[in-house]
Amino acid sequence: xxxxxxLHSHSTISDGTLTPAQLVRHAHAQGxxxxxxxxxxxxxxLREATSTALELGITLVPGVEISVTWNRRTLHxxxxxxxxxxxxxxxxxxxxxxxxxxxAMGMADSLSRIGISGSLQGAYDYAKEGIISRTHFARxxxxxxxxxxxxxxxxxxxxxxxxGYFEHHWADMAQAIDWIVQSGGMAVLxxxxxxxxxRTNLLKLLHEFREMGGRGIEVVSGSHTVEQYxxxxxxxxxxxxxxxxxxxxxxxxxxxxxMGRLPELPHGCVPVWHDWAEVKGLH
Length: 283
Ligand code: AMP
Ligand code: MN
Ligand code: MN
Ligand code: MN
Prior knowledge:
- There is one protein chain.
- Strand 2, helix 2 (46-56) and strand 3 form a beta-alpha-beta unit.
- By secondary structure, the protein is an alpha/beta fold.
- Strands 1, 2, 3, 4, 5, 6, 7 and 8 form an 8-stranded mixed sheet that branches.
- It contains 10 helices and 8 strands.
- Bound molecules: adenosine monophosphate (AMP) and manganese (II) ion (3 copies).
- One manganese (II) ion (MN) is lined by residues 10, 15, 40, 135, 250.
- One manganese (II) ion (MN) binds next to loops.
């Protein structure tokens, strides 16, 4: 049987609803045998996830999903097989998390200007000890009855041009790629189909990403349509990038794709794991 590989997922350390241990148990129950935990801007869940994976006999790939700014746009870079104790990575992620706090205050201020009060505390109540994100504001706003579900709350309040959106400068893309690569990991462009860049900017992004040391892009992703699997398989080939596959799972009922249900990469893709010893043993 082919290994079930899922290289993008979230726990309560960021905006997922399962703890790292619960997430790994769920992945195992769904038949996943290689899982990357890739929390937003934090590696604090990796120790717990790794020890649970060891207990269950599955492979946990240490990962992170870094928020970056490129040409005034927010993009996400997934780092796979990172060394979670590499100083510059640890320090870089800490500074992004500081920025998240400042941004959350800005978001709460702009929401209060349209009459929505208490959102800072409300969002932090959902974030608990994890990072603060728009997802936590979304959960608060839905609970308060401002929208019926997460998707519509984003559309009405939390995306560019809407009252709860607050412009923020994340890490520079080149810098984030460096942290990942210098820690021994591989930088993968997350869900490129979600950025709405237009053809010219997309090609420019892929070119610059490659120049900066990026090596992979997500081809199969919970955020992609089936047509986009083919589109990004072609672009991976064109830019000599390895192909990744990940559900972007955020917990039961939170994501488009369940774990263990990822389709195979399109024909011709070279997977990011093609030379990983921890995957080879499974064939
Ligand atoms: P942040 O990093 O704080 O900007 O939050 C981004 C997170 O919000 C993403 O990782 C998703 O989990 C979630 N998200 C972004 N856009 C949407 C959307 N349109 N609907 C639901 N969740 C979204
Ligand atoms: Mn998320
Ligand atoms: Mn993302
Ligand atoms: Mn993600």
